[in-house]
Structures are given as structure tokens and as C-alpha cells.
Amino acid sequence: DQGIGSGDGATASFQLVKTYGASFAPYARPIVKPVAGSVRVAVDHVEVSGATFTCDVTTGVVTFLLGHIPAAGQAITAGFLFDVPVRFDTDYLEVDL
User: Fold this and answer.
1) Which pLDDT score, from 0 to 100, does residue 55 have?
2) Fewest Cβ atoms closer than 10 Å to its Cβ: which of 1, 26, 42, 55?
3) Residue 97 confidence (pLDDT)
4) E-strand stretches of the chain
5) φ, ψ for residue 60 (rounded to 5)?
6) What global pTM score does this model have?
7) Is 90 exceeded by the pLDDT of residue 93?
8) Beta strand pairing status for 46-47 and 53-55?
């Protein structure tokens, strides 16, 4: 699981992030293309139902639905698969097999 935030009782939306590196110099990479249906969210180490949040697969923003917003101090984590959009510089890829 990747930490995506901490509840404050009011904030409903959290950006998915993937953290690389150790505690000395971590790099938090925003995830903007999670694979549809792969996002699993936990609040205070307890997985929540998919009916309590939505995840936008084009932005990577997890939004808790009304009545399910994490309380102050609750850790929010997420596990997910993600795609990395790329662009090739040519329209043809020659392969010699």
C-alpha cells in the first residue's frame, strides 16, 4: 500500500501517489492513469468497500463519498495498478525476430 494522505474530517479527495526511495530522500510520483477496477483503499489499515469511494481513472483522484470521509488523523493508503502513457517518435517499429 502507498500512503495517499491523512484524514481531517473534511477533505474527501486524495491523489494517488507512488513513493520511491527510502525515508532519507523519498520521491512521491503522482499516479494519473490507475487501471480501472484495481484501486483498493484502506482507512486506518482497514480496507474499505468500493462503494465508499470513487477513483477517476484519468486523473488518479480518489474521492470518498458523503458519509465516508475519513476522520481526523486516520491514515489513508491505496494499492493499485497503473499505466504509464508513452509516445513513440515514429509510427513504425521494425522488429527483427
Assistant:
1) 97
2) 26
3) 81
4) 2-6, 13-15, 17-20, 27-30, 40-43, 46-47, 53-55, 61-64, 75-79
5) 80, 20
6) 0.85
7) no
8) unpaired
Return the C-alpha cell found at 69. Answer: 470521509
pLDDT in tens, 11-70: 999 999 999 987 788 899 999 999 999 999 999 999 999 899 999 999 999 999 999 999
Tell me whether residue 26 is exposed, middle or buried, using C-beta atoms within 10 angstroms of its C-beta: 0 to 12, 13 to 18, 19 or more.
exposed
CA distance 49 to 96: 48
CA 1 to chain centre: 9
Annotate 51-77 with DSSP letters as a single string: GGEEE-TTT-EEEEPTT-PPPTT-EEE
The pLDDT score that the predictor gives to residue 94 is 83
The CA distance from 75 to 90, in Å, is 45
C-alpha cell at 11: 477533505
Task: Show the cell assigned to 68.
Answer: 465516508
3-state SS assignment for residue 50 = helix
